[in-house]
Amino acid sequence: MNIKLNNKLIKTTVAALALITTSATVAPTTVTNLTTVSAKAKKHHKKIKKTKRSKKKAYIIAKYYDEFKPGYSYTYNKKKGVFIGHKMKKHQTAITNSDEPKIEKANSTYNVPKVTKFTDEIRNQYHIKDYRWAKTTITYNYNNVNENQQKIINQAINQINQLNIINLKKITKNADITIEMSTTNLSRAGYTTGPVSIEDNSLNINLIEKQTVTLYENQIQAHCYGNYNLYLNQVALHEIGHALGLEHNEQNKYEIMAPISDVRKVNTIDSTHVAIDQDYINGLAILYQN
Ligand SMILES: [Zn+2]
User: Fold this and answer.
1) Cα(195)–Cα(185) distance, rounded to whole angstroms?
2) How far apart are the CA of 278 and the centre of ligand 1, in A?
């Protein structure tokens, strides 16, 4: 479940995009009769120009993180073994108030602080990433997951839905989260990745666009200690946790978001279900109640 690679990828994407935001802000705008145009109208002009310029679509390929170019959002293509970078739409990095995305808040009432800004301190305390979905109803679908595995993962998703913070909804295609089972034998049980758009909103939180959760059958079999259903439940909870914005919890190695966990030592509610711990709940609550 170690997703160091994923963390690095996301952070690199974030850093690269930050450059574009900065240069877009300081770039001179060629608008005639500037003196008679109000500040608001200027912003409006700038926005239209940006939208016009961002029409063309392009993608580039990178083999390593350090080849990432600013202004591109990268996802890893396993078949080709390369990162594919798609040009980000410029309006996603615009900084005017009118462009500020609407962030839907969960109605749940878990006892977490009201946040006016997601600071590093809060992120570290609650083990959360610097991004979340803008909405609280998030769709998912399966790719290459058999019926029995789907049943187990659906139960994990039900456990998350029962927290009443976010609502994961199964659809057949074009879902927000794609959950796939891989037979590639890597040294991890799961891996979660996807593009995040960089936002300059007052909450200081970026927004997830899509996520792909890959579960590795070989490793789940190898480390389940005879209880495949329980371990798949645990790995699904962990990876979907990442897909919703949860970061690793390095302090407690028996909780769901521990980077490496032992299925024999986690708290369970029965023989096939891990108990969702308070750290996991608080992470989702602080992300989505705010
Ligand atoms: Zn992880």
Assistant:
1) 24
2) 17
**pLDDT of res. 66:** 55
Q: Is 55 exposed, middle or buried (0-12, 13-18, 19+ CB in 10 A)?
A: exposed
C-alpha of residue 171 to centroid of ligand 1, in Å: 25
**pTM of structure:** 0.69
Average pLDDT over residues 68-83: 71
The Cα–Cα gap between 168 and 15 comes to 30
Ligand 1 centroid, distance to 56 Cα (angstroms): 35
**Confidence band of 95 (pLDDT split at 50, 70, 90):** very low
pLDDT of residue 107: 96
Could you state, in order of their start, the residue ranges of all structural domains in the chain? 13-99, 101-288
CATH number of the domain at 101-288, out of 3.90.79.10, 3.40.390.10, 3.40.630.100, 3.40.50.2300? 3.40.390.10
